[in-house]
Amino acid sequence: MSDQDPLVIFTPSGKRGHFAPGTKVLDAARQLGVDLDSVCGGRGICSKCQIQPSFGDFPKHGVTSSPDHLSEWNSVEERYKSKRGMIDGRRLGCQATVEGDVIIDVPPESQVHKQVVRKSADTREIVMDPATKLYYVEVEEPDMHEPSGDLERLCTALAEQWDLAHVRGDLRVLTQLQPALRKGEWKVTVAVHHGDGLTEARIMQVWPGYYDGAIYGLAIDLGSTTIAAHLCDLRDGKVVTSSGIMNPQIRFGEDLMSRVSYSMMNPGGAAEMTTAVRTAMQALINTIAAEAVIDPALIMEAVFVANPVMHHLLLGIDPVELGQAPFALATSDALTLWATELDLDIHPSARVYILPCIAGHVGADAAAVALSEAPGQSDDLVLIVDVGTNAEILLGNREKVLACSSPTGPAFEGAQISSGQRAAPGAIERVEIDPITKEPRFRVIGSEKWSDDPDFAAEAGQITGICGSGIIEAIAEMRMAGLVDAGGLIGSAEQTGTARCVPEGRTNAYVLFEGDDTSPRITVTNGDVRAIQLAKAALYAGARLLMDQMEVEHVDRVVLAGAFGAHISPKHAMVLGMIPDCEVDKVTSAGNAAGTGARIALLNSAARREVESIVRQIVKVETAVEPRFQEHFVAASNIPHATDSYERLRAVAPLPDVSFNTGGGEAGGRRRRRRG
Amino acid sequence: MSDQDPLVIFTPSGKRGHFAPGTKVLDAARQLGVDLDSVCGGRGICSKCQIQPSFGDFPKHGVTSSPDHLSEWNSVEERYKSKRGMIDGRRLGCQATVEGDVIIDVPPESQVHKQVVRKSADTREIVMDPATKLYYVEVEEPDMHEPSGDLERLCTALAEQWDLAHVRGDLRVLTQLQPALRKGEWKVTVAVHHGDGLTEARIMQVWPGYYDGAIYGLAIDLGSTTIAAHLCDLRDGKVVTSSGIMNPQIRFGEDLMSRVSYSMMNPGGAAEMTTAVRTAMQALINTIAAEAVIDPALIMEAVFVANPVMHHLLLGIDPVELGQAPFALATSDALTLWATELDLDIHPSARVYILPCIAGHVGADAAAVALSEAPGQSDDLVLIVDVGTNAEILLGNREKVLACSSPTGPAFEGAQISSGQRAAPGAIERVEIDPITKEPRFRVIGSEKWSDDPDFAAEAGQITGICGSGIIEAIAEMRMAGLVDAGGLIGSAEQTGTARCVPEGRTNAYVLFEGDDTSPRITVTNGDVRAIQLAKAALYAGARLLMDQMEVEHVDRVVLAGAFGAHISPKHAMVLGMIPDCEVDKVTSAGNAAGTGARIALLNSAARREVESIVRQIVKVETAVEPRFQEHFVAASNIPHATDSYERLRAVAPLPDVSFNTGGGEAGGRRRRRRG
């Protein structure tokens, strides 16, 4: 290309170069390293290389771009547009040639490394670069005088046409290869899994001709209580369907340690739990495929994140060592396996990637949170709390990242709460209590109306219970309204001046909803307060331990993560003392960060190398043997805390100095805690 | 080490060096690169590093070696010797230290890369270096403050103690790792499969402590008619058991092309044949394991060689493309698979290596012959003929190697012969016919006596038929005795002057054995002669085609290979015209060269890379479409040949100029040939 040749400028990259007239736009883009997609390799089949020329004077660039600076609309483009449709003004980059100076925009959907749209603007972007990709290739026909296998000629074509060296084929590919090549007249589309640095790239599937369909991947967050999965289109990263089910291992124990105990006490117990979780996984996969109306055999990859016990049980490893110091993992590194090794019936050659674990109590779920929330790239000191049956806690900034886990138990997920239930329509999820009248109002999942709205009853329908975020708000509101004291005791009607405080056994309960014809009475009992106290104290103590290690007294910001973390009100969480004192507007929610981490690893294979590197740099803190954990736990049992004044919180929330301890009854609540 | 330090000289390598007093002999050997084995890494457990010091004056080396130039016999050596025995005078290299000048012999069994003893001195040596090896390692205990997985610490130990980088673990290893490490008190023995350049090394099995047992590999020659397997000890390469069975696919067609036809004509036929051969393979494996009294789960590797059709059927690939030009293989490269992918039930993580194919009609069996017989390293021009239902033919020297296959059909294996049978006790295997009296004598398998020996009847027992080598000798002897003419017609009693020539239909037969109370009458019919003529003409035509390509008129030497090739008499083969004219003493037998090639690839992983490179250099000749093949075939139908004078043969064998063609009846014999 010489300076006399036409100038081509690509936007948004700004990459520019001179090209001889007649050069295909796709070729110009490739030479400049412009990110322009093509699956068919420029043969006018796939239409992935659509570009949008801009015409007019562009003094900024010093060019005048006009329609005749590209070759004429041709028959290939016409055929494509009439058959499949194409936005007016667009061209196929593999058909249009450069004939004069021109400005060419590459629309987002034509970029190979397109960004996946995410809801929240401040979260990290996902750049499409999955481990499994489609390639269209033209294969040389066999020549009996220069004999070579069909697979070897296919691999040569992949090397020549796609720069893919050292690709091999799965055995299953060999059985389908010859008919596919002949049916496609020596043109095929292949799905290639790109390996992981140590394992080689392998062809997983062959389709005759140009395969126009989708291939899918699953991002799965295998939690102690729930299993959540996202089905993603591996071509553009879109989430096609999301679904979740309860972890059936709950019948072997609600928290992780009771499952480890089950394995220790019952010969074959670990295998039983492995079967249970794999069976449930398959059921979830079948459900998702049915919802998305796709063939499960098109799911070519799955990525798993899980805490260490679930990680081991999924892999068929007895988790017994995780139940006792030194909490040795069987393996901590990331794993690439065959789906069949986990008894998963998706694509018969599907690969599974399992994120690395950080430590015996800090699993691949925490690694996924670290990948998604990237504390190591934060300028200010961020505390990330993934709230679940077992909480993962990360603290760090560019200097250093620390991690631990804390056994909160299932209270935050609505379990062990008298009227508790999982987050589902009919569950109370928001609560406000008037500090003067002590009267509550609330909202239930499925309705936007508050319970004091005249239309509430009609719209909300049956009220069935109270979910995790509801119980947190209820207790925090009770604390702010002076209905529960710092020690966690609910006052009596006399002490509080409201008839909503009713005796229940030796303690009191607060009536949130009186019940009606269709709905039960819903109260917050002192037992509920105790359960939440235990859970939140464990959470706080873990965070505090990391702050000790980091030698800091407060954090700059807090991120609440977890499927449930997204629904927690920052102020209420702080009133409860779930998290350390912090400016309330510096507490944000990241949604299911572990699931997002799994999705990032599914859609971007470089992110797999990244998380493998991140976990090696994280400093692990083992809470179970740290004497200060117990100390922090005891101090954190108070609401919000026995010794920390929570000054930043007090500026925005009343914390009345009431006390309902009359010397009798239960107090202060230390019970046996279990890792969960 | 300085010149003042003691001098250590190792034999037989001659490697020498000065070492500080107190240096372990094993360490000295390692520093000098002396091939001294050790599985336990010098911990006095495995005894693989036994050495034999030589004492006395060695003027040649300029040293005096005396017993006190090594440290004293110690308690570790005493314990080992008393428990397990050790040859007097030997020491453990990891216990004895250098204290003065000393000569140390490394006995063959203490070499890592020991040679496997082979029967014939002129065949290539096999140097032990299998893909699967055992390593004893001491693993660091877990530290909860520096958490890492047990597998990762095991891999670190392998890297540090054995220089094995980038090793991973099979999933199954993860499930057994934690109990093994704890039972072995952080010492374990692992079996590592070393990958193949593209795939990484993987731990396949973990044993607590030092594993003193064997691990095994199978070398399998999957032929059209028979399947032969050798069970080898992967530690020393010894063949523990060999066994063979008939290929059950015979019921789908005796030769390869009829099996391809079966697949074409019957939907699911290929899958049916795949199931048949895999089932038979498992039966053979079970038999071998039972004979060797070993657990099949200790068979950690299998190596397969096969012709292309069997290769594809084993892999589950429909061989239909191999039945028609251009005879495209689904894959030609070597394959490394899991045994489970072929439904083989041996070690659950066992790997399978399948040698590469050369061309659509020249398979992995021919590649194995090329590996075993190494024509590319021959100074003189060698023709290698692997005689089977489908013959593989190689011609070459250091300059160039050519290969083709030829569809001989199963006649040489005793099929399609009126009294034919496979080589088994009771089969006639050697024949002589007196040129004057025209009377025969013969030997049967199972007896050393000739049939004219008075003790023959008592020793030989029942005579059941005639095997491949028997029919070759019978017809060649008939030709030399003037009983069959160059055209292949058997003379009548009048024409030959012997009543042993009897009419049979419109032709004649020769009575080899009259039969008795227990044994049937055995004749050589003119149909038998025709079958052998067709088979041998195909063989010769293939060889001749390679000679044309090489532009030579004769070869320097001939190697007859194949399970059956070993039993063919060179002179008789030449009288028949199976092979081109050559000095008779330059025709040798290599036994089952394909099976040997499989064994080499099993025991030496470098040989796998070698054969993969060899096949790329071999020039492939496709006989099926070569017009000259037909021409050569017709000329080769005569016995020995219509146009070649066979001068070298005539110098040692009479070829009477008889003709029994009276103008009527069948003549010259061209029938439809099939590849087989």
Automatic annotation (TrEMBL), chains A, B:
<dbReference type="InterPro" id="IPR012675">
    <property type="entry name" value="Beta-grasp_dom_sf"/>
</dbReference>
<dbReference type="Pfam" id="PF00111">
    <property type="entry name" value="Fer2"/>
</dbReference>
<dbReference type="InterPro" id="IPR001041">
    <property type="entry name" value="2Fe-2S_ferredoxin-type"/>
</dbReference>
<dbReference type="InterPro" id="IPR027980">
    <property type="entry name" value="RACo_C"/>
</dbReference>
<dbReference type="InterPro" id="IPR040506">
    <property type="entry name" value="RACo_linker"/>
</dbReference>
<dbReference type="GO" id="GO:0016491">
    <property type="term" value="F:oxidoreductase activity"/>
</dbReference>
<dbReference type="InterPro" id="IPR036010">
    <property type="entry name" value="2Fe-2S_ferredoxin-like_sf"/>
</dbReference>
<protein>
    <submittedName>
        <fullName>Na(+)-translocating NADH-quinone reductase subunit F</fullName>
        <ecNumber>1.6.5.8</ecNumber>
    </submittedName>
</protein>
<dbReference type="InterPro" id="IPR041414">
    <property type="entry name" value="Raco-like_middle"/>
</dbReference>
<keyword id="KW-0560">Oxidoreductase</keyword>
<dbReference type="InterPro" id="IPR042259">
    <property type="entry name" value="Raco-like_middle_sf"/>
</dbReference>
<dbReference type="Pfam" id="PF17651">
    <property type="entry name" value="Raco_middle"/>
</dbReference>
<dbReference type="Pfam" id="PF14574">
    <property type="entry name" value="RACo_C_ter"/>
</dbReference>
<dbReference type="Pfam" id="PF17650">
    <property type="entry name" value="RACo_linker"/>
</dbReference>
<feature type="domain" description="2Fe-2S ferredoxin-type">
    <location>
        <begin position="6"/>
        <end position="110"/>
    </location>
</feature>
<dbReference type="GO" id="GO:0051536">
    <property type="term" value="F:iron-sulfur cluster binding"/>
</dbReference>
<dbReference type="InterPro" id="IPR052911">
    <property type="entry name" value="Corrinoid_activation_enz"/>
</dbReference>
